[in-house]
Amino acid sequence: MSWLWMLLAVILVVFDLPNSKSSSFTADLFENWSKQYGKTYPSRQEKQFRLSVFEDNYDYVTKLNSLANSTYTLSLNAFADLTHHEFKARYLGGFSASANNLITLNGGSSSVGASCSVGKIDIPSSLDWRKKGAVTNVKDQGSCGACWAFSATGAIEGINEIVTGSLVSLSEQELIDCDRSYNNGCGGGLMDYVYEFVQKNGGIDTEQDYPFKAGEGNCNSNKLKRRIVTIDGYKDVPANNEQELLQAVVKQPVSVGVCGSERAFQLYSGGIFTGPCSTSLDHAVLIVGYDSKNGVDYWIVKNSWGRSWGINGYIYMVRNTGNSAGVCGINKMASYPTKSSPNPPPAPPPGPAKCDLFSSCSGGETCCCSWQLLGLCLTWKCCELESAVCCKDRLHCCPRDYPICDTNRNLCFKRMGNSTLVKQLHNGGLSGKFGDWSSLLANWNF
Ligand SMILES: *[C@@H]1O[C@H](CO)[C@@H](O)[C@H](O)[C@H]1NC(C)=O
Ligand SMILES: *[C@@H]1O[C@H](CO)[C@@H](O)[C@H](O)[C@H]1NC(C)=O
Ligand SMILES: *[C@@H]1O[C@H](CO)[C@@H](O)[C@H](O)[C@H]1NC(C)=O
């Protein structure tokens, strides 16, 4: 529906109807917008504040969209109730391209700059890896600053499809939880560290098996061992070399850092983004192709802010600007994983879990002791969850992620932060396993 607002916005500008200062129009618009994006606010005051932020964004969007020479448009998207300051705090800064990081990085095992093929490869006039099936659906990082993980999985998904012919969505959560040597979960990271980590670990698990939780958790060591997709190394595109960046994109989707903290980036909705934009990198995205329109060349860039941002989650960013860093610094820090080896064969289903000499549970289950005497377990039961936590009542078990049993209320909890705050299992996005509680009881043969 954003086109409708755009239309309304244009009509407003053209006919100079009352703007947000006479707020019944924007209040009405805000109501519709809240409905569309499912926004509710805990208090009247908060709602009032959000309305005022929305009105401010409305003014900004209307003003920019009325510029005759602008090549891009803005809209009141899902971020339209956030101040620019809030937006930056919540969605940016996940890309830590500091000098320190770079020093460590160049000490890594990458071969920097592949230049033997310069000028040798054919450069088509346009290219879209999405049309070749090498790009997964746009993901949503939520307010976890792990753009680096999304950019890196996107690049690995791409090269994996190009080499093996199968498109597999890969796990950012594994990177957030387990790749902790240099990267810092929702606090930021770099794609090259991911490539080093995945290479060293011997592969990475799928999105489906280790899904994104929009927060940090403990590394699941079983899933860490599920090495579904491998890479053989990575390469850095020489900084500020747009020609080499283009050659890299011709071969595969490429990870890049950009400055994503311009206000116009927050509310971008379409067209070719030309800035103005700083070149200090604070966000990571993925170039998945390039094209030109009316003589303006642009990159096709996949973001990780969900499908409601930009063009179904994508942004077109101008290229060949003559500025060596590129728009928003996009030429400054590009890299991509390399792959020539096939992926490992699928692992056999987990073998039976042995409880003691005489009893075992099937693979993917956990042994829980149901009758203990003098410290010895005499009877075992099987919990149908893998690596589960056995509850003290000896009747129930909880999934590993939600390890606190509340057997009176039939719930499993998890601690959040440093307080006594607890989270209820069925709000935790546990992918259907909560339904197991009752079946669990039945399976325990009592
Ligand atoms: C809000 O939605 C209603 C119902 O769809 C519509 O009639 C009204 O014009 C909308 N208001 C604005 C300001 O877009
Ligand atoms: C568009 O016009 C505005 C105001 O006339 C000017 O400040 C701005 O630099 C122009 N932008 C471009 C990309 O030409
Ligand atoms: C931890 O607890 C202290 C004291 O209650 C509180 O001030 C602080 O905000 C808490 N930090 C987090 C991350 O929850």
Automatic annotation (TrEMBL):
CDD domains assigned to the protein according to its UniProt record, in alphabetical order: Peptidase_C1A (cd02248)
Keyword Disulfide bond: yes
Name of the protein this chain belongs to: Uncharacterized protein
Annotated Peptidase C1A papain C-terminal domain residues: 123-338
PANTHER family associated with the record: CYSTEINE PROTEASE FAMILY C1-RELATED
Organism this protein belongs to: Cinchona calisaya
One Pfam family in the UniProt entry: Peptidase_C1
Membrane spanning residue stretches: none
Keyword Metal-binding: no
